[in-house]
């Protein structure tokens, strides 16, 4: 432990700590531009110079380049060092355009701060300034190269840290230029981080350009709910709308960065089309009247046909409070539900995942970075959980190998192995890998039921033999690895996979390896939903019962089945048959048109709340603003608004949990205060897992992890995990799966006008062999006929995916809901090439 | 960089494509490959850079980044009459930069660029060894000493006139032969 003295203060630091970090631990911020804890030091900007008075180094040196050593005496305020830094600022400012008044960075600009703090207030250089041409970098990032101070943070983040190559450093000397070869949209889905890390205004946030200064905004810690990882963010609010979202540092989850889907996915909250008033049969009414009508009708139906005639559907994007309030309401009234998943297969996968994720296996995103081998099964991180890509990239930079077992064409910014087999064959391959990897001693020590699962794995099959070489290499790597993480998706995989992955992880742990299990779930609060819906009916069964007349009322809480149910004609028909459809939502969902009673609810930014991410980490989002119509939409561009009123317009909406509690009570006199605390108290009482929930004011910023492990009795493993089977394989049959894309499929982010510009056109992925057989070429339009309808879509042909599989995105601009199910088998004569203009 | 390729250059690109095959697909070969391309074309057009990026399977940004780092690589075709303006110590003192600026303004191109008709290109050089004549500019092979801003237009005009004379004489000799 090196001990050194900085500015007369003594400190012990870990070996390998840079002097700049040691000073930071003492609360001394040495100026810096190029140094960033995530990117390391390069010594490019020269502004962190301090004077070393004693020890192995002497004189003015860069504090970011020197490791803290015993006996060092450092002065950050020495006259020589201060003078040096002052000149450095002056050099860096030589070509700076001095355009702070029109620069969006002004107000939170490191260069601005340092220039003022360094005392370089007046320009002495009289020469001609070097100027650059800026590039168009897409709809998210604004480029202004003249402000650059050559700290290399952007190219280091873009190329070294995240692995993308289309932005880099060009030219030499004073002409050094950071940009692309040619203007164009940045390829990386992490490009927004350039805005955060640039110490000056070279990269600024395009959507919030010229809207306000940092000090105009109210900044609130929040969470990202655009995927299940739950990254930490800071939202900036102004005039009743979210203007900007930035990454918030989190040790355990996202580190310093977030992805573009998260960063620009918040626009749904201030959408002009967002419903803000309660409605009955499409007519605006007061909140109280709506609640009263809904309550009366629900009670009437309950009395007439029994409480089972009311069913409820919750959502994986709702906060834990809303989910708990809904559970409580259903329990109290005896209603059916809540159901959280429209797709039953996905529900089973998520619940298995939640049940299998024991405390000793669960790992955070940060732990993934430490792994030396990562096996990803049925996971496509760029499209399902983008920030996982950065974690995998860090592991890979440290020498880890990464292997994907997935049918999809996986695209990552680094090299990895890819075993691409059809979804149905994945379990067999995974079982085979397991058999190859586990040593004899471990097998002998297995419990009988575990042994049974192991013995049922078939010895060989043609699938294995055709991939033999790759599988052997992977099995060998797994045997040699020490710190292993198994990443497992829950979307496209068959329902045995999440369990098989956990079984694999447990066996590897028995071999003495450090093993982590990392599930990806669909939905920000899917984990919470899995914990709160032990024995719910399925959505399919509810529809059956509506058709049979058994269920007469349906309560949809922040869930839009039109977005997820794969048989749209049936859904339209069935919802018409209901006596009462009660919809609560904060999005302009299609179901509002069908709703008898509609109640507007609040978003995460207006209501706050707890969310449980995919590793079982409960995290808290604070209330960022009070809701209501954004001033920009309400004042016809005038500010301040010319008409004055004593309440905020459009502020009728309540948190969904408030509405649910008001429904549960017999009269309208529900207090507005203390409802949330009530729900949490109920949650703690009913679910012992939540008993550790700390109070709001002492909630740790990194959240707390709850893992039920085997505590939730969901169903026993040994029932299903016996023989990995392969459905009959016919050369004529193709498996069709629907998948997520980074941009274009997720419900919330597709409501962002800026991310819509990033979406690529929906297309079906097809292996080149299949395409050749069907005589289809790249860009052709095909019609895929299923039992319930036809989907027409353009074809993209690729080689890095499993043959015999069709991959269709659940794209918002594609009517994939005519496929009948999220995974179907189609024969090749159901795929027909059509002319471009032909309607489907 | 946005110059149209001539037919000879398009043909040269084809032979470059053939030559590329002799290199291993390693990032380390990038500089030798760029040197080879410049040997064929005398500069690196964007078409060639893209071809190299595609061959090595790396991003064009990286190829361009490396190429622009080294002074030996040019991105504009050399003009028929290369203009070199000296900015060595003596020429600098006698305001060589004003001479350079005048050439740039008259030709409508920046230092390092080539006119669209590929007649002129401008380059700044450090010292040409005749400091007594400062400021100095070299057009083609001819050294012009004691340059002044007012002389720039005359020099360029002279080249135009010489070209005209050469053309007329050629026509004359041709008509005499027939």
What does this entry look like structurally?
Chain A has 840 residues and is α/β, with parallel strands linked by helices. Chain A contains 29 helices and 34 strands. Among the domains of chain A are: 3-93, Roll (Ubiquitin-like (UB roll)), CATH 3.10.20.740; 272-340 and 538-602 and 653-670, Rossmann fold (3-Layer(aba) Sandwich); 347-526, Dimethylsulfoxide Reductase, domain 2, CATH 3.40.228.10; 733-834, Barwin-like endoglucanases (Beta Barrel), CATH 2.40.40. The longest helix of chain A is centred in the middle third of the chain and has 19 residues, at 287-305. Chain B has helices at residues 7-20, 30-41, 46-56, 60-69, 89-93, 96-107, 149-177; strands at 81-86, 120-125, 137-139, 142-144. Chain B has a four-stranded mixed beta sheet with strand order 2-1-3-4, covered by helices on one side. The model of chain B has no long low-confidence stretch (mean pLDDT 91). The termini of chain B are far apart. Helices cover 52% and strands 10% of the residues of chain B. Chain A binds chain B through residues 165-172, 175, 180-182, and chain B through 49, 58-65, 68-71.
Q: Give the biggest sheet of chain B.
A: 4 strands, mixed
Biggest interface between protein chains, with counts per chain? A-B, 12 and 13 residues
Instruction: Report the β-strand fraction of chain B as a percent range.
Output: 5-15%
**Taking Cα atoms only, what radius of gyration of chain A do you get, to the nearest Å?**
29 Å
Classify the secondary structure makeup of chain B into a structural class. Answer: alpha+beta
End-to-end C-alpha gap of chain A = 71 Å
The average pLDDT score of chain A comes to: 90
Oligomeric category: heterodimer
Compute the average pLDDT of chain B. Answer: 91
Name the helicity range of chain B.
40-55%
Spatial separation of the terminal alpha carbons of chain B: 43 Å
Low-confidence stretches of chain A: none
How many strands of chain A? 34
> How are strands sequenced across the largest beta sheet of chain B?
2-1-3-4
Q: Profile the largest sheet of chain A.
A: 7 strands, mixed
- Spans of chain B of 5+ residues with little confidence (pLDDT < 50)? none
* Pattern of helices and strands of chain B: HHHHEHHEEEH
